[in-house]
């Protein structure tokens, strides 16, 4: 559903207020909102064209909205519902968890252009990075397509191929290597391929979030939450670089890597055997 008038924003905010109120006690453990932004050079230096919002109450109840920020401008975030709440209020609410994939430039653009300071953010990119088993494998971050390829579940191959086809068709319209342009996000009416591309980028987030987040120890959850907050805060800095080369690097410092290594360490069989201090198996240390 495309939201392109203030009246439609009001109805959306009222629906969100109702749904969030219904799920109030589970918003932290089971987020309802999954978000992605698109634009022309999406960051403080560019523009926001579309905010895609998946309202995921369960696997059987979900709805995707495309908020037309290009048309609405600030009204997308300042138009209030019946209870005087706005979409901007929801984005800034620390108790309403909102799931993104690599939130950095989304956060940068929202803050620079509309003064919205995101809170309550969960970042699937950081979650996936923190599930890797050692510091070396955590060094670099990956994009969404790589995550989908690596984490496809048995029986979902056809769905993955459909998602990849949709993503490829959309990218051909805006990526320079395909002679496309990000201006396509500002053309109205939106093309079917662009709508499908936007929807596809949020519809995969609930499954990925469940895979990476669930059944993790509290120490892991706290570490990822803290680093996600730092990631968002970094986008408010005057020297934030939206397209810096270091964006491909994971943020984990030595101390954080030590924590993650410890949480994922699996004892080797020989570790249970007492050979004494002088034992040498000829292969050196495991560490």
Summarize the structure.
This protein has helices at residues 6-22, 69-72, 75-78, 87-92, 104-114, 124-130, 135-138, 144-151, 157-174, 192-203, 205-213, 218-234, 254-264; strands at 2-3, 33-38, 50-58, 61-68, 98-100, 121-123. It is α/β, with parallel strands linked by helices. It has a single domain (2-259), classed as 2-Layer Sandwich (Nucleotidyltransferase, domain 5), CATH 3.30.420.
| Uncertain ranges | 268-287
Radius of gyration: 21 Å
- Major beta sheet summary: 6 strands, mixed
Mean pLDDT: 88
Number of strands: 6
Shape descriptor reads globular
- Relative helix content: 40-55%
Order of helices and strands: EHEEEHHHEHEHHHHHHHH
Task: Briefly note the structural class of the backbone.
Answer: alpha/beta
Instruction: Examine the coordinates and then state which fold CATH places here, giving the name of the CATH topology.
Output: Nucleotidyltransferase, domain 5
Kindly report how far apart the N and C termini lie: 53 Å
Q: Specify the oligomeric state.
A: single chain
